[in-house]
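Final report, closing paragraph on structural work. Over the funding period we assembled a curated collection of sequence-structure pairs, and we close with a single example.
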Amino acid sequence: MAQLNALAGGLFILTVLGIVGVRQVIGCLRLFIVQSVLLAASALILGIEHASIHLFVVAGITIGTKALVIPWLLYHVLSHEIHARREITQTLGIPTSLLIAAGLTMFAYFIVHPLLLVGSTPFVRINLPIGMAGLLIGGYAITVRREALPQLLGILTMENGAFMAGIAIAPDLPLISELAAAFDVLVIALVIGLLTRSIHKRVGTTLVGEMASLKEE
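Its predicted structure, as stored:
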């Protein structure tokens, strides 16, 4: 089970790096779906290992909300934004971003290393640094991406990273917390999606830099 979890974690971090390295919005959305499925797989593996109904629920919620509902919602609310604008505008190039993301991954392992020395399980040693790396790289994606939808995917990647670490260090998290977190993410995706569509209709762009320059006369 530890090896299966390590495989899921390795593929998870690849999807996180892919979200930074892919230029197409639809490609980032597909990577987020795969990333969410891998998060659910890790939760399922830990659930089997710990015989925890909470982790089984986490896996089901993750598949339902992040791999199905949120992508469907974004695809239908922001269909024009996904297909019409094929390349994502960002402040740094893809090679530079990938190098920074790799550096953030190593930094994540460095900052969690002291926690891994205190009687940690193989699952914690895999999930905690990978989750921290997902959190940092998702935050980086928010800072370098200029459109609203790619920034939203960065926020969702950060949330996936936090959950990746959380299911390992707190496998018996109360169900009410898991349901609340899933509902909050769904609401965030819906609100940002509707706002993005409304702004695009009125202004003609979702570039954050251009919207910030708009002022009342």
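The longest helix spans residues 175-203. The chain has one domain: 2-199. We thank the funder for supporting this effort.
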